[in-house]
Amino acid sequence: MRDYIIRRILVVIPLLFAISLLSFFIMQLSPGSYLDDLRMNPDISEELIRKMEADFGLDQNIFIQYFSWLKEILQGNLGESFTYRIPVAQIIGSRLFNTLLLSAAAMLISWGIAIPIGIYSAVHRYSFLDNIFSVFSFIGLSIPNFFFALLLLFSIVRFDIPLPINGMTSIMYDYMSPMEKVIDILKHLLVPAVVLGTAGTASLMRQMRGQMLDVINKDYIRTARAKGLKEKKVIYKHAFRNAINPMITIFGFQLSSLFSGAALTEIVTGWPGLGRMMLTAVRSKDLYLAMAGMMMGSLMLIIGNLAADILLALNDSRIKYQ
Amino acid sequence: MQHKLKLDDQIKVNSTKTLWQKNLARLLKNKFALIAAVIIFLLYFLAIFAPFFAPYSSTKNFKNKFFHPPTKIHFTDENGLTSPYIYGTEVKEGWAEYEINKEKKYPIKFFQQGDSYQFLGVFESNIHLFGVEADQPIFILGSDNYGRDLFTRILYGGRVSLFIGFIAIFITTFIGLIMGGISGYYGGFIDSVIMRAVEVIMSIPSFYLLLALAAVLPLDLSSAFRFFLIVSILAFQGWAGMARVIRGMVLSVKSEDYIAAAKALGADDKRIILKHILPSTATYVIIRATVAIPGYIIMESGLSFIGLGIQEPSASWGNMLSAAQNITKISDFPWLLLPGLFIFITVLSYNILGDGLRDALDPKS
């Protein structure tokens, strides 16, 4: 097992290298550079632009640019953002934290709702409520995140619900007590987390229902019933514990898909996460910031997949990894 | 004798039904899937014949009619039921507020002559399904910030949004089948090269990759070319997952006896891959395609929504929604959210159809 994990981690290194190569050249394919806008500005002298070009390393050949970027990043230097003029590491840390916070909240919502509903639906299969839940899960699966976010924002404004509609903090944030600060952030978190959470709930609910149905038809459940256990005990002690096992692996995969899914939601709700940062970075051709975002997102995705595989291995002793 | 004949007939009847006919029959039994299929068909029909069903051309704008609410259609007047008509509206003092002028009625005319259009690039026509006299526009779903008819643009936008998924899945499937087929069949070096490429693409968050690729496109492309490039981007991102699964299936099929038989009979690689291996993946491919199309529709609308996809003045459901990004606009003009409803209905129908297809084609599950 330990060897397997070590080998999986070693594979990540060339993978990240290939990802960086691909993303760097895609980024360089886009026409123009960050400096083009500045060139239009008559207040900025030609010399200054040339100096900035040299500072950012944009005057060199693409391959040299790539390798100097690679050299820096291997030494832990992510470069400097063109637009913000501060080290990329400073920006990306808080953005990554925000996205992880949002993802965690979304997961909490989706697991909190999906597991009980999944159990109920499986136990009361084809009942009225089960059908209603399946209809809802179809709707949840089909509604694009950004459209759902727009609908929520629309109803907040229309019905004067006292919730913020944009960003992560209110204007008065700096003057708040720590407790108020937490509440303020939670209020801002609500809409994006609900949007992402319901998107996850829909599929999770169906999977939980399926797993539970599989288990309920097993012999040992019949045995448990036959020996006269209470139905509650049969469901929660025998069926649920076995049905939840495979769900653990879904957790890892969810972690990776949340990242992509979060981007549009962040953009619509103004949540200052990694996805929103990527959009502005790509748009303004802020090369090193976009590269860092790309690498960070990929790293998270790889870690998510790795975690899923390891959890699967730990959870299911039938699976042997060499 | 009589009895035996009957039995033979019965066998005949049963055996004339091919596997696919049986699958189809099973699918038709699923009412929800059937309704979903009809809705999808209707949406495509409306989009293809958009110039006819839409009262205006997609770029026609009415001055002083921006953010016009949906026009109310009246079916009754003081004498009871009449043919449908609308009242004219005039702009009030203030911003995008309209007053109904009850003095003059504008009857809705069917097969009305209006903006001329080219249909399928061949026929020229100016007949629209419905319309009113030229000076009074009819906005059955309201108008947008340029005073363009939302209904018209939804139909034209459907051409982009509906077909982008369709074409993208076609290309994705094609590439995925070839790459997965080659990778699984030949194995060895070529297999590891293809699979490493697949891993790289699948390890980048899909939306980030789309974002970076879409930013590559210059803004001054013709809309047809841009459409094509966006499809390519979606396919570039999407083929990897397909190839990986096809490879797995090919690997398991490869060791079957009938492949060995075909080899023994002297069939070449091309024939074995195309005639023996790939057909066995057909069920999976069809299900996967149906399930993946809505994903592409959502991705396209997402890209267009943030301004990196289809550009104005071309319409797509995503870029129409971007007008609703401003929160004051959606609270004042909620009809701007309607394109999202169309995305939702399309995706929902595809999901239901995909679910039905899975049940019909894969009785094991």
UniProtKB/TrEMBL annotation, chain A:
Subcellular localization(s) per the UniProt record: Cell membrane
Membrane topology: Multi-pass membrane protein
Highest taxon of source: Bacteria
Domain ABC transmembrane type-1: 96-312
UniProt xrefs under SUPFAM superfamilies: MetI-like
Alphabetical keyword list: Cell membrane, Membrane, Transmembrane, Transmembrane helix, Transport
Predominant location: membrane
Membrane-traversing stretches: 9-30, 100-123, 135-157, 185-205, 247-268, 288-314
Annotated GO biological process: transmembrane transport
Keyword Nucleotidyltransferase: no
Gene Ontology CC terms: plasma membrane
Keyword Cell membrane set for record: yes
PANTHER family on file: INNER MEMBRANE ABC TRANSPORTER, OLIGOPEPTIDE TRANSPORT SYSTEM PERMEASE PROTEIN APPB
Family of this protein: Belongs to the binding-protein-dependent transport system permease family.
Protein name as annotated: Peptide/nickel transport system permease protein
Automatic annotation (TrEMBL), chain B:
Record keywords: Membrane, Transmembrane, Transmembrane helix, Transport
Cited SUPFAM superfamilies: MetI-like
Membrane topology qualifier: Multi-pass membrane protein
InterPro entries: MetI-like, MetI-like_sf, OppC_N
Cell location: Cell membrane; Membrane
Domain called ABC transmembrane type-1: residue spans: 158-354
An annotated GO cellular component: plasma membrane
Matching Gene3D superfamilies: MetI-like (1.10.3720.10)
Signal sequence coordinates: none
A Pfam family this chain is assigned to: OppC_N
One of the protein's GO biological processes: transmembrane transport
TM segment ranges: 32-54, 160-186, 198-219, 225-246, 335-353
PANTHER family per the UniProt record, alphabetical: OPPC IN A BINDING PROTEIN-DEPENDENT TRANSPORT SYSTEM (PTHR43839)
Protein family membership: Belongs to the binding-protein-dependent transport system permease family.
Name of the protein: Peptide/nickel transport system permease protein
Species of the source: Halanaerobium congolense
